[in-house]
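Course assignment 3, question 2. Fill in each field.
Student: A.L.
Task: Predict the tertiary structure for the chain below.
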Amino acid sequence: MNKFRLIVRKSDKLLGHFESDTPWAADAVQDISRCLSEAGYTLELLIADGERRLLESGPKGIQVLYSETIFKSTALR
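Answer field:
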């Protein structure tokens, strides 16, 4: 299952993003992007490409302290 992030801008000002990793995320991102682009918003689609993790090793074993998804830019359909 892929994780998608849709970056939303208006007049070169960052407004926020929509992120989804549901089984229907690709369709949801396309629907949202279609509506927003018709309304004049600039969009950038990112797809998860990896993950960065901060680990701690201790007597209880290895624990994940922090994880961050790494995204790469991809074309909107």
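Instructor remarks: The chain has one domain: 4-74. The chain has one helix and four strands.
Grade: pending
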